[in-house]
Amino acid sequence: MNSKKQIVPIGLLFSVAATWFGIHAGGGFASGAQTMSFIVRWGRYGTWTFAVTFVFIALVYRELVLLGRNYQVYNFRQMVDVLYHPYNKVMSPLYEICYNMANILAIASCVAGGATVLQNLFGLNYTAGIILIGALILVLCIFGAGLVRKASTVFSILIILSVLIISFTAFGSSGFHLGAYLASDASNTTTLGNALYRAFCYTGFQMWCFAGVLGVSQGLITKKSINASMAIGFIINILGLGLTCYVMLGFMPQAQSATLPLYYVCETLNQRIVLIAYTTCLFCAYISTGVGVIYGMVLRYTELFTRNKPQANKTAVNAALGAVYIIACVLCSTFGLTPIINIGFNYMGVVGLFVVTLPALIAGHIKNKRFEEAHPDYEKELVAKSEQEEKKEPA
């Protein structure tokens, strides 16, 4: 019993799940802009399509984490080489191009958005804010998976607490009119097919954020631990996304016209604690997404670089690569939050459905099943190896 607890500690399960939530809860989520664009603006369907998105995301992530464990691959290029084989010579480079594009879009709003928060709260110069946010993301992602997991856990707890404060304050306010909105014609302006299409675009875009989760999942050596971690992640993500959906639905259709819909709700509530909670949520979301996504991207290229130059300092390589990505993201952020989400996220979401979601659910599942049949004792061997390594560690 004690050995099993050491092999898969509950803290690891939660930290991997928290990394997933931290990556998901980025600028688009915390501002409400992404949730509005893909789910809330489609009216009454938004009361449940958010759950559909994370059913599929959880299933895909579970297959890919299991594939990573089976083949011992923990950066995204090694993963997709396994997933797409024997077509990986064509599909893997395509994935890599799309992956970099999507994640630069995702982080672009985070760096600029975090600097805006600092500017509004403390009057910090915008350029200085970008440098500070970029430096903080670098520090948290260059020192490895352990620090990323710990940072994401802290940020995820703060985001969830902030969302709870905002949500329950909104639910109890006189301006919250969810029932009246759902009963009105304003909530029924689209078809079920279009609402599901937009929800699946949300799912597709989240596929590009998986590398950060894969990078911190090395310790999940049993199928039970993988299932448990994905279940925890599913619950955390659906709780956060669901609450923000219902909050904004209760202030529709007015919230739809706001650039930052969740901020519009907080301003409407006119309570200081809500604005403090929102600012905390927004800032943590920007940092957590930047850390998780940058780490996943850097991990792939650091291993590629150090393979050819084994004498290179890994921390220095991480820092250099991370800096390159952050500069690219800052330049991309000049397009503005709304175009990035409504245009960039949408197109990359459609691509993600066909390039990642379907291959993972079909090819990934088949390969995991065949691997298990061909290696019936593989998990026992991993557990035994882990126990031996623990015994070698000094007390």
Describe the structure.
The chain has 395 residues and is mainly alpha-helical. Helix content is 79%, strand content 0%. It has helices at residues 2-7, 10-24, 27-31, 33-38, 49-71, 76-84, 88-122, 126-141, 145-171, 178-183, 192-206, 210-215, 223-249, 261-269, 272-308, 314-332, 337-374, 378-392.
- What is the structural class? mainly alpha
User: Roughly how many Å apart are the termini?
Assistant: 19 Å
- Low-pLDDT windows of residues: 1-6
Report mean pLDDT, rounded to a whole number.
83
Oligomer: single chain
Which band does the percent of strand residues land in?
under 5%
Instruction: Supply the number of helical segments.
Output: 18
Helix content: over 70%
Shape: globular
How many beta-strand runs?
A: 0
Which sequence of SSEs, written as H and E, runs from N to C? HHHHHHHHHHHHHHHHHH
Return Rg in Å: 21 Å
Largest sheet: none
